[in-house]
UniProtKB/TrEMBL annotation:
<keyword id="KW-0547">Nucleotide-binding</keyword>
<feature type="domain" description="Helicase C-terminal">
    <location>
        <begin position="463"/>
        <end position="638"/>
    </location>
</feature>
<keyword id="KW-0067">ATP-binding</keyword>
<dbReference type="GO" id="GO:0016787">
    <property type="term" value="F:hydrolase activity"/>
</dbReference>
<dbReference type="InterPro" id="IPR048333">
    <property type="entry name" value="HA2_WH"/>
</dbReference>
<dbReference type="InterPro" id="IPR014001">
    <property type="entry name" value="Helicase_ATP-bd"/>
</dbReference>
<dbReference type="Pfam" id="PF00271">
    <property type="entry name" value="Helicase_C"/>
</dbReference>
<dbReference type="InterPro" id="IPR049945">
    <property type="entry name" value="AAA_22"/>
</dbReference>
<dbReference type="InterPro" id="IPR027417">
    <property type="entry name" value="P-loop_NTPase"/>
</dbReference>
<feature type="compositionally biased region" description="Basic and acidic residues">
    <location>
        <begin position="22"/>
        <end position="64"/>
    </location>
</feature>
<feature type="region of interest" description="Disordered">
    <location>
        <begin position="1"/>
        <end position="82"/>
    </location>
</feature>
<feature type="domain" description="Helicase ATP-binding">
    <location>
        <begin position="286"/>
        <end position="440"/>
    </location>
</feature>
<keyword id="KW-0347">Helicase</keyword>
<dbReference type="Pfam" id="PF04408">
    <property type="entry name" value="WHD_HA2"/>
</dbReference>
<dbReference type="Pfam" id="PF13401">
    <property type="entry name" value="AAA_22"/>
</dbReference>
<keyword id="KW-0508">mRNA splicing</keyword>
<dbReference type="InterPro" id="IPR007502">
    <property type="entry name" value="Helicase-assoc_dom"/>
</dbReference>
DNA sequence: GAGCACTGC
């Protein structure tokens, strides 16, 4: 038989191929032995073999001995791995059989045996079958190759080779599917584990070439590309950092600043900012493209300050997230050697850490937007830098339009838009061909892998891939992007199940779920450093894409999906849909693996999918959200023609019209679309217009104290009640306590808040009532802010806790467009724009089904649901919103007075 | 009797 041995140079590997020959002979002998044994046994009838029965310990000892002995052989690992493998499998099979067979007897081809006999025979038979199968296959291809690692060039895919033989073991425990050696090799290569001594470590190269008991549904990846790392001398940097540590802290920081990739561009950048001023666009605009790690966020404001721009006003730098604004400000204040909050400060909601001295101000984009309300020309700023512009948050998009607008009469204003590479051209076009200034980043190369074929079940594929990485790739943590909490929990369970009982066979796998709703103390787990020899798998939602950075991630698994909110302006219905991500998002995810060293990204879709099916960029938020708040903000800034307003991407006209219509109905706008006095007051509150209307209206009903509590609770969303899987009944009972008297969800929320307040904001109380402390604290912050704003718009803080009707009337004043009527079948119909909806099962009124309800929001999940529902009297509608409802809309309420409870569903 | 991407003001 012709043998092909490719790319083999070491003598050990050469002898390896001979061993396979030798092994066949050995297997042949075993086969003969087996046959002999069966013959003998048949001759002896069903004689008892108990005297031959080995104890479990003896068996283990025997295996250990053979392992040890074979470690001295030239090709030891194959045999051992197989034995181990078969033994494990046999045990499993025996377990299954045990239930079916009586008297501890085992059948082998119709003959009753003891367990030990049975095991031995089966084991020999298995080897025989495997060898036979392999020989047949080898004959078929008329060549025989030594097994090689599956990803080696010219190698044989062992999994495929043995796919027929392995077929019958599908769905068995994953432990059988593991290849301990790839892991071993990885560990050896990095010389960090001593656990690797278990199997012959003399010849570590052989390990990779040996059998791979890889996972059944192993996924084939194609290495598509390697993103460029940047030409940056890391060693030199490390070197100089080392040196600079010796100096004083401030000196060291100054040294570090000079090592940032942006530093060489300092003069050029300042020149560009100074010079660019086109006649058709008075203010200077510069689009800055800089990858993460270039130092643009921390350095550019400092350069501008050093160049004297702060003499004319502050430098604002906006961030999409609060933590970013805070941490960057802290860093810059260190670098400048000033106290945080003095020359360098930050401004985020609930926290203004600035003073009169402040010249560099880091802030969230939403915060700058609110500052526009008080200072429509941003007179106190000389420079505005919109950072992370490529994220296209609702606030950045509006900021763009606004800064572009004010630039017309503020020629002295310098605008900097910093973005990732992908959209730079688009930003430049939007700002009338503003020049693009590129700064290299500090990235490591990332290898991108696509699957060969599309994966039908991405969750399963993600799990298999992460295990594959775990056993075949060098150390480094894995980050898996999943769509939501439920998926993460499922994945966690499956992973735990598949790795359970593996013991020392593979390195420890630490599974860390992370999503925004996860209690903070559990979130902390992902930041704990991975113990030596173990590997961390982080199962994350989109939160890991931008919001938080986990050190040590080397591998990213990207199934290509995320949950995205979409909004239907016609029905006013929101829904969260699992959607394919964009190319930009895929790149961002891949980049998460290359932060601390070269990384690898495994995409669970094909290169074709990537190029043809994914959008270039995620649809900007402004095109898929309720615009009522945006419109109110813009109107209060004096922008009237919203349809022709220069957005970078225009929001759907339908959404704009719907928002205008709503604001008109809430009497925030008059018939000519101008802001009314009510509208002006409403715009002060950083909440949705219906909520702000409710607050403004509470003045009339003397219950502003209660209403702002409700508004605060509603605005923190649906993360108040905590419902762990194992204690759902308790959690539901605790929740129903707040619904006594069927007061409705709004009042129930108020009860939750006041109860918490009465316990002096007790954390313990929250635990006892299955309430999320974090959400409550947030509600308290919101409430405090709303209380402060009440004063500003001169609404007295009045409490009227006993008068539930007053509270409900205030709610009606804001939410009258959200009105629904019970139908005969137990569902509801919205009154103004008729559509069928249901009460969300989490509502306290889900079983009660009042005839008329007002709801806070509509969500489309499995059905169209109303979330946060309260019973109302229909006549209030005509009283409170006569311009919106006429008597005929609600007439059957007056004519057919129903006894209480009539509307109850049967 | 069901489902909770992520931010931000």
């Amino acid at each position: 038989m012709e043998r092909q041995v490719k790319r083999r140079t070491s003598p050990a590997e050469d002898t390896g191929s001979e061993v396979s020959e030798e092994e066949r002979l050995k297997d042949q002998r075993e086969k003969e032995e087996l046959e002999q044994h069966l013959k003998e046994r048949d001759a002896a009838g069903t004689r008892k073999l108990t005297e031959h029965k080995l104890t479990r310990r003896e068996e283990e000892e025997a295996i250990r001995r053979s392992t040890a002995q074979e470690n001295d052989d030239i090709q030891p690992l194959r045999k051992v791995s197989r034995q181990e493998y078969l033994k494990k499998r046999e045990e499993k099979k025996l377990e299954e059989l045990r239930d079916d067979i009586e008297d501890e007897q085992y059948l082998f081809e119709g003959v009753k045996l003891t367990e030990a006999e049975y095991r031995e025979l089966r084991y020999k038979k298995e080897i025989y079958e495997l060898v036979k199968k392999r020989a047949e296959e080898a004959d078929n291809v008329n060549e025989y190759r030594m097994p090689e690692a599956y990803d080696q060039e010219g190698g044989v895919n062992q999994e495929k080779r043995f796919s027929v033989a392995m077929q019958r073991y599908r769905d068995t425990n994953a432990e059988e599917k593991m290849n301990p050696f790839a892991e071993q090799e990885a560990l050896e290569e990095h010389q960090i584990g001593k656990a690797t001594l278990k199997y012959g470590s003399k010849n570590k190269k052989q390990a990779a070439d040996d059998y791979q008991f890889v996972f059944e549904d192993q996924i084939d990846f194609i290495k598509a590309s390697v993103t460029d790392g940047d030409n940056f001398d890391y060693e030199e940097m490390e070197d100089s950092l080392e040196k600079s540590r010796a100096k004083s802290a401030l000196e060291a920081l100054k040294e570090e600043r000079k090592k940032l990739p942006i530093y060489p561009y300092r003069e050029e950048l300042l020149q560009a900012i100074r010079d660019h001023q086109a006649w058709f666009f008075p203010a200077s605009v510069l689009v800055i493209v800089g990858e993460t790690g270039s130092g643009k966020t921390t350095q550019i404001p400092q350069y501008l300050h050093e160049a004297g721009y702060t003499k004319r006003g502050m430098i604002a730098c906006t961030q999409p997230r609060r933590v970013a604004a805070m941490s960057v400000a802290a860093r810059v204040s260190q670098e400048m050697g000033v106290k945080l909050g003095h020359e360098v400060g930050y401004s985020i909601r609930f926290e203004d850490c600035t003073s009169e001295k402040t010249i560099l101000k880091y802030m969230t984009d939403g915060m700058l937007l609110r500052e526009f309300l008080g200072e429509p020309d941003l007179a106190s700023y000389s420079v505005v830098m919109v950072d992370e512009a490529h994220e296209r948050t609702l606030s950045t998009d509006i900021l763009f339009a606004l800064v572009k607008d004010i630039a017309r009469f503020r020629p002295d204003l310098k605008l900097l838009i910093s973005s990732a590479t992908l959209d730079a051209e688009k930003f430049s076009d939007y700002f009338d061909s503003a020049p693009i200034f590129k700064i290299p980043g500090r990235r490591y190369p990332v290898e991108i892998n696509f699957t060969k074929a599309p994966e039908a079940d991405y969750l399963d594929a993600a799990i298999v891939t992460s295990l594959q990485i775990h056993v075949t790739q060098p150390p480094g943590d894995v980050l898996v992007f999943l769509t939501g909490q439920e998926e993460i929990e499922t994945a966690e369970e499956i992973l735990k199940h598949r790795t359970r009982g593996l013991g020392t066979k593979i390195a420890e796998l630490i599974i860390c779920p992370i999503y925004a709703n996860l209690p903070t103390e559990l979130q902390a787990k992902i930041f704990e450093p991975t113990p030596e020899g173990a590997r961390k798998v982080v199962l994350a939602t989109n939160i890991a894409e931008t919001s938080l950075t986990i050190d040590g991630i080397k591998y990213v698994i990207d199934p290509g999906f995320c949950k995205m909110k979409s909004y239907n302006p016609r029905t006013g219905m929101e829904s969260l849909l699992v959607t394919p991500i964009s190319k930009a998002s895929a790149m961002q995810r891949a980049g998460r693996s290359g932060r601390t060293g070269p990384g690898k990204c495994f995409r669970l879709y094909t290169a074709y999918n990537f190029h043809n099916d994914l959008d270039d960029n995620t649809v900007p938020e402004i095109q898929r959200t309720n615009l009522a708040n945006v419109v109110l903000t813009l109107k209060s800034l004096g922008i009237h023609d919203l349809v022709h307003f220069n957005f970078m991407d225009n929001p759907p006209a339908e959404a704009l019209l719907q928002a205008l219509e709503l604001l008109f109905a809430l009497s925030a706008l008059n018939t000519s679309g101008e802001l009314t006095k009510v509208g002006r007051r409403m715009a002060e509150f950083p909440v949705d217009p219906m909520l702000s209307k409710m607050i403004v209206a509470s003045e009339k009903y003397k219950c502003s104290d209660e209403i702002i509590s409700i508004a605060a609770m509603l605005s923190v969303g649906n993360s108040i009640f905590y419902r762990p899987k194992d204690k759902q009944v308790h959690a539901d009972n605790a929740r129903m306590n707040f619904h006594t008297g069927n007061v409705g969800d709004h009042i129930a929320l108020l009860k939750v808040y006041t109860s918490w307040k009465e316990t002096n904001y007790s954390t313990q109380w929250c635990y006892e009532n299955y309430i999320q402390v974090r959400s409550m604290k947030r509600a308290r912050d919101v409430r405090d802010q709303l209380a402060g704003l009440l004063e500003r718009v001169e609404i007295e803080l009045t409490s009227n806790p006993g008068d539930l009707d007053a509270i409900k009337k205030s709610i009606t004043s804001g939410f009258f467009p959200h009105f629904a009527r019970l139908q005969k079948n137990g569902s509801y119909q919205t009154v103004k724009h008729p559509q069928t909806v249901n009460i969300h099962p989490s509502s306290g009124l889900a079983q009660v089904l009042p005839r008329w309800v007002v709801y806070h929001e509509l969500v489309l999940t499995t059905k169209e649901y109303m979330r946060q529902v309260t019973e109302l009297k229909p006549e209030w509608l005509v009283e409170i919103a006569p311009h919106y409802y006429q008597l005929k809309d609600v007439e059957d309420a007056g004519s057919k007075k129903m006894p209480r409870g009539e509307g109850r569903a049967q």
